[in-house]
Amino acid sequence: MAKRRLSQRQKERIQAIQERRRQKMELRAQAALEESDDEQLEEGLVITRHGQNLVVADQQGRYIHCLFRQNIGHVVCGDRVVWQPTTEDGQGVVTAIMERQSALVRPNFSGEEKPLAANISQLVIVIAPEPAPSQYLVDQYLVAAENIGIKAMIALNKSDLFDETALRQFERDYSHYSSTGYPVIKISAKYEHGLDPLIEHLKDETNILVGQSGVGKSSLINALLPELDLLTGKLSEASGLGCHTTSATTLYDLPHGGQLIDSPGVRSFRFGSISKQELELGFKEFAPFLGSCKFSNCAHKQEPGCSLRQAVETGEISIQRLDNFLHMADNLQKIF
Ligand SMILES: Nc1nc2c(ncn2[C@@H]2O[C@H](COP(=O)(O)OP(=O)(O)O)[C@@H](O)[C@H]2O)c(=O)[nH]1
Ligand SMILES: [Mg+2]
Ligand SMILES: [Zn+2]
């Protein structure tokens, strides 16, 4: 099927229609039961999508198989939506996407940015003694989190592989992240209660786990979601499509609170190319110093009166972070 291109006017009209539906939804909430609206607008949460089919959780947490109006935009896992039941078959139609708090986007083959998941609130960067962690990669993920506008934290998995000395060394090496405001925790999928600190951090958030292959993401997900098989069964049933593939981006409720959005695509997500400004935004502890170097075109390398260098001297910025920033700045178009 050829892709339909929409003119600016059509786009505006569609946006206006969606806006009206959102407003209607809000009005309906206010008017509560008194309103005798036979349109039956309901709010729901997109749990997963398979092509044209969605599984939407209604406000009682029931799974509803929904289709969606083609003109409402790209619906993804994590979207809050307005949907309407279709007469008697227990299915529904999604008619509007509610405003997103955040979106994880990924460029597709033609360079267009496509959302992958919506309303994520926390990025959990998983590292491990093995494969050896890279702060450069951690910093890239932090740049992504800052630009998406979500929280980020670092979890050292397989901490059982480190002895006391190695653990203390790790704490020193990562202390600048915690002082910048990124929680750093040590966990183990191999210890009883080894995931407790993680469970605590995931509790009030919609989370995704990211990190290098081999750090233990699959192991963590299986440990965090002991009923994963049961859930995927329920999703297959709800979507009416038979098998629910784990490759589809899916939102899971965590047994101890919070949500996890997962798929292989989400776990290995990387940013497209970014601008200088977006890069600067990604190193949030630099903010007070940017723009106050002696030279307005300061490269923050050898120049006298460089405020970032001075902040390194006073311990307000870590040298590793500045080095990684400079390296990323040199490779702006290539790194992500
Ligand atoms: N010692 C130890 N090994 C772990 C831990 N978590 C995962 N592993 C092992 O690390 C390897 C890679 O794990 P996997 O979950 O496949 O990593 P992924 O590639 O990030 O999904 C597997 O052999 C796991 O058994 C842990 O906490 N401690
Ligand atoms: Mg895996
Ligand atoms: Zn400078």
Report on the architecture of this protein.
With 336 residues, the protein is an alpha/beta fold. The chain has three domains: 8-97, Beta Barrel (OB fold (Dihydrolipoamide Acetyltransferase, E2P)); 117-267, Rossmann fold; 284-330, Probable gtpase engc, domain 3 (Ribonucleotide Reductase Protein R1, domain 1), CATH 1.10.40. It has helices spanning 8-31, 135-148, 164-173, 175-180, 196-202, 217-224, 228-239, 264-267, 276-281, 307-313, 319-330; strands at residues 42-50, 53-57, 63-68, 80-85, 92-97, 103-107, 113-118, 122-127, 151-156, 184-186, 206-210, 250-253, 259-262. The strands form three sheets. A six-stranded mixed sheet has the order 10-9-8-11-13-12, sandwiched between helices. Strands 1-2-3-5-4 form a five-stranded mixed β-barrel. α2 (135-148) links the parallel β8 (122-127) and β9 (151-156). α2 (135-148) crosses α11. The relative contact order is 0.11. The structure holds guanosine-5'-diphosphate, magnesium ion and zinc ion. Residues 157-158, 160-161, 188-190, 213-219 line the site of guanosine-5'-diphosphate (GDP).
Topology of this structure?
Elements: H1 8-31, E1 42-50, E2 53-57, E3 63-68, E4 80-85, E5 92-97, E6 103-107, E7 113-118, E8 122-127, H2 135-148, E9 151-156, H3 164-173, H4 175-180, E10 184-186, H5 196-202, E11 206-210, H6 217-224, H7 228-239, E12 250-253, E13 259-262, H8 264-267, H9 276-281, H10 307-313, H11 319-330
Parallel strand pairs: 3-5, 8-9, 8-11, 9-10, 11-13
Antiparallel strand pairs: 1-2, 1-4, 2-3, 4-5, 6-7, 12-13
Helix pairs in contact: 2-11
Bound molecules: guanosine-5'-diphosphate, magnesium ion (MG) and zinc ion (ZN).
